[in-house]
Amino acid sequence: MTSFSPGERVRPRNEYPVREVASARLRVTTERGAGTLPVYRSADEALDARVRRVVIVLHGRLRDADAYLLSAERALAAADVDATDTLLIVPQFLASADIAAHDLDQDTLHWDWTGWMGGDDAVGPAPISSFEVLDSLVEEVSDRSRFASLREVVIAGHSGGAQVAHRYAVVGRAAALLAEQGVHCRYVIANPSSYVYFDKLRPDGNGGFSPADESTCAGVDTWKYGIHQPPRYASGDASFDVLEQRYARSDVIYLLGEADCDPQHQALDRSCAANAQGPHRLARGLAYFEYLRRRHPRLAHRCWQVPGVGHNGQGMFNSADGLLALFDAKARAYGLGAGEGSELPPGDGAAE
Question: What helix, strand, coil percent values describe the chain, rounded to 5?
Answer without folding.
Answer: 30, 20, 50
